[in-house]
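Quick one, tokens below. Sequence please?
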């Protein structure tokens, strides 16, 4: 089976692990990833990325000339894509830029014009209702009409696609898995000593952006009601709410319980997660975000949850978006924004270490069974075979 996947996401080599695993599952599988030759990610990555060709056996990453360098929806490719398609002749074409993507329409059209007879798929995270105007509505209609299968990152996204009239095959799974060789239970005594963490401390962890929609102030308020417990809050990340968090902690006399760690390379995050007794993802749905087609935000997946689960760290999450489906029975869930309910979940794990260990084990088993790169690769291959049957 020849599989071609197209996305700007794979300019980062760490993001390729699922597809690298897919290529190694069995003989006869070839995976080619098409990435833009030049891309400006934005955010903390301010420089334009010049991608490089890579090949490892039946797996390769091929940079192709592109016409947009920083807009996912407007990304499209140059004529060198045509020669690649003629040479590779894929059986599966998967474009991971959403339902309204120009690149997806381009691949669908080239698939037809070149007579490849490949199955057309796309991936999307989008999990909120939206309205489209011409000509974007026509673009999505064309894409959905010629789609054989969709990989969607959450259940809400799947429901929205069904409501928009898509009735063919669909599989719910995240875009990226967790590397269980990196994210695994392992002691970090030197890092603990550096951060002045003792064995008596109960470390509550948060990893992410310090912004209102991530619910970090709800987490802090919950901990402030538990000052009789020996907790410390390990905050890994940065963002606009840092000053407000510091102010509230100072007002309640708990500044010495906060451990601040500026964002670190993703390959080092596992070290900090392994210091935690609990990881909390208290995301909160909001209507403050506006786009041309919709309003609002809710958690699309919560990747840090599966990283903590793989480290055998028990997790607590809000009921925003996909979080309850990711956690399932392998952690605790509370109503988003509810301080007293989060306080209850924290108390359960602080006061009952045996229960916390049990949840950690459940989470570990769930992560290994469902969310490693290899597990996702097997699921994806099964989906491709269903489409070809």
């Amino acid at each position: 089976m020849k599989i071609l996947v197209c996305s700007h996401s794979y300019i980062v080599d760490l993001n390729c692990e699922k597809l690298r695993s897919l290529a190694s599952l069995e003989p006869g599988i070839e995976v080619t990833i098409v990435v833009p030759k030049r891309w400006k990610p934005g955010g903390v990555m301010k420089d334009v990325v010049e991608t490089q060709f890579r090949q490892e056996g039946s797996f390769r990453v091929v940079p192709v000339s592109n016409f947009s360098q920083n807009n996912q929806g407007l990304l499209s490719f140059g004529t060198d894509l045509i020669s690649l398609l003629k040479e590779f002749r894929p059986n599966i074409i998967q474009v991971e830029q959403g339902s309204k993507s120009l690149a997806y329409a381009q691949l669908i059209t080239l698939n037809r014009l070149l007579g490849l007879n490949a199955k057309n798929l796309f991936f999307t995270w989008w999990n909120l209702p939206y309205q489209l105007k011409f000509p974007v509505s026509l673009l999505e209609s064309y894409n959905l009409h010629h789609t054989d299968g969709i990989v969607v990152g959450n259940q809400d996204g799947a429901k929205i696609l069904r409501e928009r009239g898509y009735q063919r095959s669909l599989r719910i799974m995240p875009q990226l898995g967790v590397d269980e060789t990196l994210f695994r239970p392992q002691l970090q005594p030197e890092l603990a000593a550096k951060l002045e963490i003792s064995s008596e401390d109960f470390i509550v962890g948060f990893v992410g952006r310090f912004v209102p929609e991530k619910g970090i102030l709800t987490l802090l308020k919950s901990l402030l009601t538990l000052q009789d417990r020996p907790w410390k809050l390990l905050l890994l990340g940065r963002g606009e709410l840092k000053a407000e968090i510091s102010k509230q902690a100072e007002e309640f006399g708990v500044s010495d319980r906060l451990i601040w760690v500026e964002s670190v390379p993703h390959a080092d995050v596992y070290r900090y997660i392994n210091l935690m007794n609990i990881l909390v993802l208290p995301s909160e749905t909001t209507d403050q975000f506006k786009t041309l087609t919709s309003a609002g935000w809710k958690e699309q997946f919560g990747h840090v949850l599966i990283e903590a689960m793989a480290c055998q760290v028990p997790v607590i999450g809000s009921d925003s978006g996909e979080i309850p489906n990711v956690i399932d029975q392998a952690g605790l869930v509370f109503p988003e924004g509810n301080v007293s309910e989060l306080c209850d979940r924290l108390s359960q794990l602080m006061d009952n270490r045996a229960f916390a260990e049990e949840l950690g084990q459940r989470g570990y088993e769930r992560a290994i069974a469902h969310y490693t790169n290899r597990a996702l690769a097997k699921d994806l291959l099964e989906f491709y075979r269903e489409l070809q049957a």
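The longest strand covers residues 202-209. The CA atoms of residues 369 and 375 lie 7 Å apart.
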